[in-house]
Design brief:
six-stranded mixed beta sheet, 15 helices, Aldehyde Dehydrogenase, Chain A, domain 2, 39% helix, alpha/beta, Aldehyde dehydrogenase, Aldehyde_DH_Superfamily, 23% strand, binds adenosine-5'-diphosphate
């Protein structure tokens, strides 16, 4: 496929990046290996398009976004299949992601009509104070491979609705879904230069974007390590930034929880995308009085999960993204076993990039799986005795993205949700992500929010106009 710069599909003559199916190792397609020239050309186009796109009415931008929404909706099957081929997730999850990705476009197409200002009482009779919010300018978006469509629309939809134009660099493992979304945007009539998608070396492209003062906002989803590099780079020209980084989500089951509900949410949260999401349950804390019952139910539920090529009917867990991802899961399992954890289900055996679900018990805080994000289908269960203890252990991480809490006691739900140092708390809910709510982290999980009106603010500057007459 080709890159999208200024409404044209380009990349002829450049070398290419091969995209492989993690389930089969087969080549799925190629993307151009763009560099400095393409990164700069994309900014030129976005900067020029900003002049007209930002002047359109909210209604005009909404109509353009809704026609993109409809194109994506019509192409759901095709996009989902492409995503499964390049990323590995089961087809049903890929379809779910296209719907989720598109829900951001629909929601922000409407929200763009509600970018309200303020009037403030002035300090003199002949003065007036107006506060206006206006598009920040050209936005650079850098996205990861685990949600090849949603991480793009969650950034691009609010940016466009606010009146910004974007330059996007998708992950090198999954550029094809992104490029197809770009083609659909052009077919939908999104004007040239409003969305530009550049593929190629991440560092080279990101450096051009960081250094160019025309880029006024950087939005990123990925590792905390790269997030810190980008934050430093953005400081050179004082860009606005939003960073969605790593997580280490605690999943807390109190002694009064509905265990059947807790287990079904545990399965959804832990094994979605084979455990490769930043909000996946990563540390399972179960009250000591219910740990036997929870572990038994978890084992029964996990044993029903089918591992295989995501294109096959009935598959629940696809392959991991690459061999290193498999190695990390194996290392965490072996480390926990060496330090005394008991295997409830599964184990470290892998078949190529396929590794089945594992549940461990008797896990303690010094094990790697409790300290680092596994990003794979490993569920380490650890027990606790008191509320104070579990809160301290849950908060004892540099990360603060999502936390889950299962209890039927409303007092505990309120108390604990307020104590948890996390940007998202799911109470009896393992799947809280929706377009209208703010998604984002505390501490080293990032800065800023995506989704809802908070997600729109990230692309707007506040202007105070003082009028004397
Ligand atoms: P993951 O571990 O999920 O691959 P990364 O943070 O490495 O997370 O990747 C997320 C995105 O950041 C990808 O698009 C990747 O190409 C990009 N990326 C990786 N390294 C850099 C870098 N040094 N500068 C800018 N972008 C980078």
């Amino acid at each position: 496929m080709k890159m999208l710069i200024g409404g044209s599909f380009v990349g002829e003559g450049l070398s290419t990046i091969n995209v492989f199916n993690p389930a089969t190792g087969e080549k799925v397609g190629t993307a151009p290996d763009g560099g400095e020239n393409e990164a700069k050309a994309a900014i030129d186009e976005a900067y020029s398009a900003f002049k007209t796109w930002s002047k359109k009415t909210a209604n005009e931008r909404s109509k353009a976004l809704m026609s993109w929404f409809r194109k994506i909706e019509e192409a759901t099957e095709e996009l989902a299949e492409l995503m499964t081929k390049e990323q590995g997730k089961p087809l049903k999850e890929a379809k779910g992601e296209i719907g989720y990705a598109n829900s951001f476009i629909e929601w922000y197409a409407e929200e763009g009509k509600r970018i309200y200002g303020e009037t403030i009482p002035a300090s003199a009779a002949n003065k007036r104070i107006f506060v206006q919010r206006q598009a920040v300018g050209v936005v650079a978006a850098i996205t990861p491979w685990n949600f090849p469509a949603a991480m793009i629309t969650r950034k691009v939809a609010p940016a466009l609705a606010a009146g910004c134009t974007v330059v996007v660099k998708p992950a090198e493992q999954t550029p094809l879904t992104a490029l197809r979304l770009g083609e659909l945007a052009i077919e939908a009539g999104i004007p040239s230069g409003v969305i530009n998608i550049v593929t190629g070396d991440a560092k080279t492209i990101a450096e051009v974007w960081q250094e160019d003062s025309r880029v006024r906002k950087l939005t990123f989803t990925g590792s905390t390590e790269v997030g810190k590099i980008l934050m430093e780079g953005a400081s050179k020209t004082m860009k606005k930034i939003s960073l969605e980084l790593g997580g280490q989500a605690p999943f807390i089951v109190m002694d009064d929880a509905d265990l059947d509900a807790a287990v079904s949410h545990f399965i959804a949260s832990k094994y979605r995308n084979a455990g490769q999401t930043c909000v996946c349950a990563n540390r399972i804390y179960v009250h000591e009085d219910v740990v036997d019952a929870f572990s038994e139910k978890a084992k029964a539920a996990v044993s029903e999960l089918k591992v295989g090529n995501g294109l096959e009917e009935g598959v629940d867990l696809g392959p991991l993204i690459d061999e290193d991802a498999v190695k990390k899961v194996q290392e965490h399992i072996e480390d926990a076993k060496d330090k005394g954890a008991e295997v409830v289900y599964g184990g470290a055996e892998a078949d190529g990039q396929f590794i089945g679900p594992t549940v461990l018990r008797g896990v303690t805080e010094e094990m790697k799986c409790m300290r680092e994000e596994t990003f794979g289908p490993l569920a380490p269960i650890s027990t606790f005795k008191t509320e104070e203890e579990v809160i301290e252990r849950a908060n004892g991480t540099p990360f603060g993205l999502a936390a889950y809490l299962f209890t039927r006691d409303i007092g505990k739900a309120v108390r604990l949700s307020e104590e948890l140092e996390f940007g998202i708390v799911g109470i009896n809910d393992g799947l809280p992500s929706v377009p209208q709510a703010p998604f984002g982290g505390f501490k080293e999980s990032g800065l800023g929010r995506e989704g809802g009106h908070h997600g729109m603010d990230e692309f707007l500057e506040v202007k105070y106009i003082s009028l004397a007459f």
